[in-house]
Design goal:
Radius of gyration: 21 Å
Distance between the termini: 21 Å
CATH architecture: Alpha-Beta Barrel
Number of strands: 13
Strand content: 5-15%
Shape: globular
Oligomer: single chain
Strand order of the largest sheet: 1-2-3-4-5-7-11-12
CATH superfamily: Glycosidases
Amino acid sequence: MGNRSLHDHFRDVDWGVATAESIAAPVAGPDCAGGVAPGHFRSWADDITALVGSVPTGHRSVLGWPYVQPDGPGSWDRAALDRCDRAIDGMLARGLRPGLTLLHRDLPDWLGGSDGWLARDTALRFADYAAEMGRRFGDRVSHWITSTDLGAPAVAECMAGMSPSGRGHGAAGIPAVHHLLLAAGLGATALKAAGVSGEVGTTVGLVGGYPATDDPWDRVAVERLEAWGNRLFLDPMLLGEHMTGEDGYSPIEASGCVRPGDLETISTPQDMLALSWHLPIRVTAPENLPRVLPVLGCFQALNDVNSLLKRLGFAVVPFEKVEATSLGWPIVPEGLADALASLYSCYLDRLPPLHLVDNGMSDPDDVDEHDEVGRARRRAILRARLTWLAGVMDYGVRVRGYEYWSVLDNLGWKLDYSKLYGLSVPRGRAPAQPPIPRDWARTGAFAEPRRPSAGRPHAALAGRGTARTL
């Protein structure tokens, strides 16, 4: 970074905050009117101002497809649309730039109750929904996110059966990946055709790992993790082709769900790529798993998960002697920068400008705006993360937006799944875990064999260095 300050590095970055709350839902109270939540949101905005000297002016909310179109194609809920109008106008009146997420993991009952994302028709219905929302709100919204996450509804729900529990289809669920990508492409095209004035993009969960040991196979395991976590979605979006294994096998192409013209739609250039980032992952080769992860005890949930991941050629293990949040997530300030550097080495100039979203403290114990100790800790961690991020920006990674996401959003998901994996081992004690959902761990993807090949690393990855061991 040299002598440049954080403010100098992030002078041209658009700062904002975001929430998973739907502006179409009935408002719980006057404090949330206009889509602006109190308390911790103000604290998060103050963090940004204190560290980089910029006042966050962007505020992104979920629009809420189930609320605005509860009864099927061609019909719209007038009251829900009125709530959206009032929320957007309320944000503008407060001097904020409204952003909207069209899809946040949930579908209207008339779609979710059938085949959901396993059906191609869901992508077409999503395009219709995007077009209508663009026509109604496109003159007032500064940026649009077609989907807040591609991995959760496709992989976690349709394939693994995590949410809602018991609906996993294993390998038979892989067309959901293609249909969600198709929906993002069709939705972006529909928004542009509707004449929206704001930027359009979609969100991909950024995955980054560190090898657990010095064994070269652990470095291969990291590449396999990043292939299944990043390339599964970004190869179609940025290269116009589905991820292919070293044997020439493409699981999505082999499913028969890809039609002529689909990949052209999916790879239509968008204004920006949104990346959500939660935590780094410590990775090992399956054959090394017995010596780096206990078999029983508090890591039983993680062992169950690895029974699935081993089929893809890698496994995940806890970080040791690393500070953790109350969710058990490891605090590694350089993790985001290292993951971005790996992503950049893969796609280089094919990457559009990046917006980092769904990214924050991830610690429910640090949400009290009056807690001076918690505030100081939160800001120290954010300063360290931004310092590392400034370093990769100096090497050409284009970060144009950063949204500080509320730690209280999606808390049920975090407590049900993310915490039970035990991804960090706090000093002197084992991580607390809620009961594992055994129906999920014994059905869905766990019950169906998968091809073990994780895929050859992309050509741009050949010979690149892997993330350093902590």
